[in-house]
Automatic annotation (TrEMBL):
One Gene Ontology cellular component annotation held by this UniProt entry: early endosome
Key words of the record: Cytoplasm, Cytoplasmic vesicle, Endosome, Lipid-binding, Membrane, Protein transport, Transport
Biological function: Critical regulator of endosomal recycling of numerous surface proteins, including integrins, signaling receptor and channels. Binds to NPxY sequences in the cytoplasmic tails of target cargos. Associates with retriever and CCC complexes to prevent lysosomal degradation and promote cell surface recycling of numerous cargos such as integrins ITGB1, ITGB5 and their associated alpha subunits. Also required for maintenance of normal cell surface levels of APP and LRP1. Interacts with membranes containing phosphatidylinositol 3-phosphate (PtdIns(3P)).
InterPro entries assigned: PH-like_dom_sf, PX_dom, PX_dom_sf, RA_dom, SNX17-31_FERM_F1, SNX17-31_FERM_F2, SNX17/31_FERM, SNX17_FERM-like_dom
Gene Ontology molecular function: phosphatidylinositol binding
Gene that this polypeptide is encoded by: Snx17
Similarity comment: family membership: Belongs to the sorting nexin family.
Protein name, as recorded: Sorting nexin-17
GO biological process, one term: signal transduction
Cell location: Cytoplasmic vesicle membrane; Early endosome
Lipid bilayer topology: Peripheral membrane protein
Organism: Malurus elegans
UniProt keyword Secreted, yes or no: no
Organism placement in taxonomy: Eukaryota, Metazoa, Chordata, Craniata, Vertebrata
Length: 450
């Protein structure tokens, strides 16, 4: 059997025969010329080396399927992952009550089936709140971890290939919760949401929460104006004023480490307004702030790594702290691209934010509507946008910084899927050259625009 990790978390355990069944089903539906080649059957028992070779081949196969916009967005592929997730966690299909939080801490209890996928649960929450159908696409469910001060640390946006009830209960930790939050970046879309009473209330609750947690910056005078509007229950005016404030609509991440402008700098990253904002604490304790526009990122990737053990006395990789990194290649000036790396347990959530910013930009560029963006259905299956295709780039060095400690790269964990042989340690060289996320919103910008 093989462990499948999706977005850095153990998702399910499957056998070769189950994956072969999936492959045959995809071939039947989409044709042999569309589906990647599958590792062949062997008559005799596999040697340990052959088992490891097959694991690597299966991992490449699953990543290739996931990165193909047609196959990766297909109901066949996603339902296979959902069913395998449910079987692995041994959770029978039954009616349960799931608690979903709103930004203000209010709990919404919905009766769902354990086998309900993310979109079903989102619709159940919307229905319980009386949120109209055409506004559901503006919101998403997020897996968060509650911190000691009552704030939330975002783990990831729940995806179409998972069952939210199974995802949250399989973590066996009450700190993990599911929260409903807006999932668009352009504040111009607030107008659509504010047209409806429930949409307005949800947006208001999120804005108040973001101000209370210090995600949105306010000075004393602005705070006084906001409090006055709260007392008058002028919610629309409250949001209009908040829209003018710094970091409105941004997601703030936990403090982490970056190699920009120099190695080992502590940084607080926020995502919003089509950029990643850095507040960097330099080694001399000086704080510097800067932003990286998503349109100037050529590509990015998420990798997980463990420090190399120093011979037999070193700790084994299984016990080492796994490091997650997001690295993006940025157009610093005309003809000068530079890699910037963020080391953070939230690297996957950061990459999901980047991807959704790009998707939103591409939808706007093509004149599409955000109302349909998350709810496009083709033959009953969610279709991923073209911007999710991986771009074939030359292989990356382990790090832009050659002096860094040696790392054993374990796996790319973007929207790709990685497999782990249960009885084998992970290979140090299983990062394909294909695991970059190409950015279709990337623009060549000259010096005069910098």
């Amino acid at each position: 059997a093989y462990n499948i990790h999706v977005n850095g978390v153990l998702h399910c355990r499957v056998r070769y025969s189950q994956l072969l069944g999936l492959h045959e089903q995809l071939r039947k539906e989409y044709g042999a010329n569309v589906v990647p080649a599958f590792p062949p059957k062997k008559i005799f028992t596999l040697t340990p080396a052959e088992v490891e070779q097959r694991r690597e081949q299966l991992e490449k196969y699953m990543q290739a399927v996931r990165q193909d916009p047609t196959l990766g967005g297909s109901e066949t592929f996603n339902s296979f992952l959902r069913k395998a997730q449910q079987e692995t966690q041994q959770i029978p299909t039954e009616e349960v009550v799931l608690e979903v939080l709103l930004s203000n801490g209010q709990k919404v209890k919905v009766t769902i089936l354990t086998s309900d996928q993310t979109e079903d649960v989102l619709e159940a929450v919307a229905s319980k709140l009386d949120l109209p159908d055409d506004l559901v696409g503006y919101f998403s469910l997020f897996l968060v971890r509650e911190t000691k001060d009552g704030a939330f640390s975002f783990v990831r946006k729940l995806q179409e290939f998972e069952l939210p009830y199974v995802s949250v209960t399989s973590l066996h930790n009450p700190e993990f919760r599911i929260i409903l939050r807006k999932s668009y970046w352009d504040s111009a879309y607030d107008d659509d949401v504010m047209e409806h009473r429930v949409g307005l209330n949800l947006l208001y609750a999120q804005t108040v929460s973001d101000i209370e947690h210090g995600w949105i910056l306010v000075n004393k005078e602005q705070l006084r104006q906001l409090k006055s509007l709260q007392e008058k229950v002028s919610r629309k005016e409250f949001i209009r004023l908040a829209q003018t404030l710094k970091y409105y609509g941004y997601l703030k991440f936990d403090p982490c480490v970056t190699d920009f402008p120099e190695k080992g700098c502590h940084v607080v990253v926020s995502a919003g307004n089509n950029e990643l904002n850095f507040q960097v604490r330099l080694p001399n304790e000086q704080i510097k702030e800067g932003s990286f526009k998503v349109t100037r990122m050529r590509c990015w990737r998420v990798t997980s790594s463990v420090p190399m053990s120093n011979g037999p006395s070193g700790s084994s990789p299984g016990k080492s702290e796994v490091k997650l990194e997001l690295a993006f290649e940025y157009l610093m000036s005309k003809d000068r691209l530079q890699w910037v790396t963020i080391t953070s347990p939230q690297a996957i959530m950061l990459s999901i934010c980047l991807q959704s910013m790009v998707d939103e930009l591409m939808v706007k560029k093509s004149g599409g509507s955000i109302r349909k963006m998350f709810r496009r259905r083709m033959n009953g299956a969610l279709r991923r946008s073209d911007s999710q295709q991986a771009v074939k780039s030359p292989p990356l060095l382990d790090s832009p910084d050659a002096s860094r400690e040696p790392m054993a790269k374990l796996s790319s964990k973007l929207t790709s899927v990685s497999l782990r042989g249960i009885s084998h340690s992970s290979s140090a060289n299983d990062v394909g050259t294909n695991d970059f996320h190409g950015n279709y919103a990337f623009e060549g910008i000259g010096d005069e625009d910098l």
